[in-house]
Amino acid sequence: MKKVYLLLALLSVSVFAQKKFDNIQSEKLGEERRITIGLPASYEANPNKKYPVLYLLDGDYLFDPFLGAVNYGTYWDDLPEMIIIGIHQNKNDEREDDSTYDAIDGVPFEKGAKFFEFIGAELVPHIEKKYRTAPFRIIAGHDVTAGFINFFLCKDNPLFNAYIAFSPVLPTKMEVRIPEKLAAVKEPFFYYLSVADGDIKKIKEPIEKLDSNIKIANNPLVSYKYDLFKNTTHYTQVLHAIPSALYQIFESYRPINSEEYNNKIVVLQSGYADYLENKYATMSKNLGFDVPFRMSDFKVIENLILKNKAYDELGKMAEIANVTYPKAMLGEYEIGLMYEKMGDPKRASKKYQNASQMEPIGDLNKDMMYDKIDEMNTLAKQTK
Prior knowledge:
GO terms for molecular function: hydrolase activity. The protein has 384 residues and is an alpha/beta fold.
């Protein structure tokens, strides 16, 4: 039985390497604030990689559900690895005090103003100084804290790129202010909104008005999703909403699936390599950080090129490979494959020889290159 528990512990560590706690002494709050930090499994092993950051208000109870959803998504490579920061707010009425705003002016007030400054002026700079962060920040909250996160959106330069609001208790005039702000966005932006059919009327009606106004604003740069969860309560809907929100924000990150392949790629007459390049360029632009080409996506496009005998496009595939994996044999292999398919085994052999001196990647290795060299040399002799 002890071995079973040890195995489970090791598995949990391998999925998400570090979950730790920290205390930040805040001058803005005049007190110490506790946070939970989740670092991705690759954080220590990949010292050059930077990660998007997910900030959670109500981190006491939102951290673990978000952690589980992120673990699941990263396992299948549907979500990127990310740093998760959970802000503790469970002491007395701390979450209510942290979310205080002026009912007339609709701005953070008293403790709420201090908490607002704590996040923007202390917490975010602290995390970005201490950890390797990509320039893509997400913030999430539930009811009063979900309403509060919108104050960051209403700044001249919003602090976060993506907002996740579960059944928000909306501050004054937010049903109008949020859509106005989203309508003016000039860069890719993400907003997720959810409500339960079991929410009280006082919460639901402003949310429904907000949803309507955002849809009227209809800014193509804003990725917006609204969920109304049936047969749920104010609290149970959160477990439905977390994966929905994450998969909405990172929709462009996902690898090529059967729907994309059948509806967008197979129907192309040409430009398969361009499609792959544009997919990842759009992905990086939307998310604000570079996403390396997946070998699985690369092979999908390579196979389609071969199937359609569009061999000249293998040259473009080689260019893509050399940018993303400059030390790997992939680029030289693609050029060799192009020459092979075009009936030039002599030049193909030279490229495979070059590839054999470079680093293996995916299913490409030195033995495979040597086999290709022998095959091409035999073909070259036969064609003399």
